[in-house]
Amino acid sequence: MPDTRSTPNVPTPPGYTIGDYLLDRLAELGLTELFGVPGDFNLRFLDHVVAHETIRWVGSANELNAGYTADGYARIRGIGAFLTTYGVGELSAINALAGSYAESVPVVQIVGAPPKETQASGRKIHHSLGDGDFKHFLRMAEEVTCAHADLDAATATWEIDRVLRDVVFRRRPGYLMLAADVAEVPAFPPTEPLTTDLPVTTPGAEAAFEEALRRFLPGRRTAVLADLLVHRLGATEELASFLGDTDLPFATLAWGKTLVDESDENFVGIYAGAASQDRVRDVIEGAEALITLGVEYTDNTTAGFSMDLDPARMIDVTRFAPASVTSCSPPSPWSGRSPWCTGWWPTSTTSSPCPPRRRPSRRPRATRPRARSPRTECGRSWPPSWSRRTSWPPTRAPATSAWPPTGSRRSPPSSASPCGAPSGTPCLPSSGQAWPTAAAGPCS
User: Fold this and answer.
1) Based on CB atoms within 10 Å of each CB, which residue in 81, 273, 279, 368 is the most buried?
2) What architecture is domain 18-184?
3) Dist. CA 412–CA 163, nearest whole Å
4) Per-residue pLDDT tens for 302-357?
5) pLDDT tens digits for 110-148?
6) In angstroms, how far apart are the furthest CA atoms of the chain?
7) Under 8 Å CB-to-CB from 360, ≥6 apart: which residues?
8) Is residue 262 a contact partner of residue 246, using CB atoms and an 8 Å limit?
């Protein structure tokens, strides 16, 4: 029975279908253009796209172009979508979908698929692999999407809401497989707005976060490092307000360039690990408290992960961080208060700052290694002259051989504890020593 999401005594609007429901939800999220390429399995749904009052169809030369266009559209508008046909069409666009996943871009791919009856028959259908399995490409899309669904008439509207909610909330691509006959099934329009701002915290977690900040920050020389996720989570204005109110020195990674006003006197430059300018490294790596906002380190933006940042001095504000003893999870992403965060929080009540760090000297530029012969390794021939191995694989030792082997200089393991106590007896601290505690931090 088709899902109506409404009361049974309300008549279905004439001609309103599951395809129309999907389009209305996309329009509700701010979408006004749908990109793609027509195909025989999406033509029925495409008729509803052309007739929609809000969404305009924009045809593309090929599916890959459609995917990249939707990606750029989503970076500006907050969400993008494109339509392809089953198999050959969606495979042409999977590279764009993977790029959106890697760079946290909310894009929805809609795939027009063969009718459900055709799929159930297991026949050799064009655009398929000819083995009767029509889920091959859906499983491929699972690897580069945060949510996916093979829509059926009974649960289509619930699945549409679930996938779209995850796409907006997680800022990752989603995938909807829409069979040609399912797109034409009658449905009811949405009766409630689509909720995308989901609660991810509790008042207790917020209070613990604020208390940890009050303990950690006073008396410390503080700096701010921002990156790409600030933009992806729509928090650019909140970042500008925060920097203006605190008057702290700040920098960005190359991936997050243009997030901030680079003419501001507190802007110190682009941080790139060991490749940074000396002034940038002094401020960021020398900070006694470094607040990182939406930072994701990559080899390209950090000169091969050459950053010299002490986790014990950092407040890492990011997304989807697990709540634990050394982390906190304040409210929904960038919602006006503290975003998700994770970091090491000192448990000591002392407010004295940590001693200043000694930043190592700039690392010398790496030289290109010399080409070696395939028969050599580290300038030596292989196998080395001292090696007794003459064949491969080596002969496996008998399962009953004793250990240590005969003639070995290694003595058998002692039955005594490291402190000399009998086996099984715990070692107690010597006089004047105290048990280590987990509450002690590196600054205590």
Assistant:
1) 81
2) 3-Layer(aba) Sandwich (3.40)
3) 60
4) 999 999 999 889 998 887 664 322 333 333 333 333 333 333 333 333 333 444 45
5) 999 999 998 898 888 889 898 888 999 999 999 999 999
6) 91
7) 308
8) no
Phi, psi (deg, nearest 5) at residue 291:
-95, 115
The DSSP code for 256 is G
Would you kindly state where each structural domain of the chain is located, as residue ranges?
18-184, 203-343
**223 phi, psi to nearest 5 deg:** -140, 165
CA angle 426, 427, 431 (to 5 degrees): 140
**What is the mean pLDDT of the segment spanning 389-407?**
48
CA distance 171 to 308: 29
The answer to whether 18-184 and 203-343 have equal CATH topology is: yes
Task: Check pLDDT > 80 for residue 411.
Answer: no
Q: What pLDDT is stored for residue 71 in this prediction? A: 97
Helix (H, G, I), strand (E, B) or coil at 107: strand
pTM given for the model = 0.67
Number of H helices and E strands in the chain, helices first, is: 11, 15
Contact between 49 and 77 (Cβ < 8 Å): no
Cβ atoms 104, 172 nearer than 8 A: yes
Fold topology of 203-343:
Rossmann fold (3.40.50)
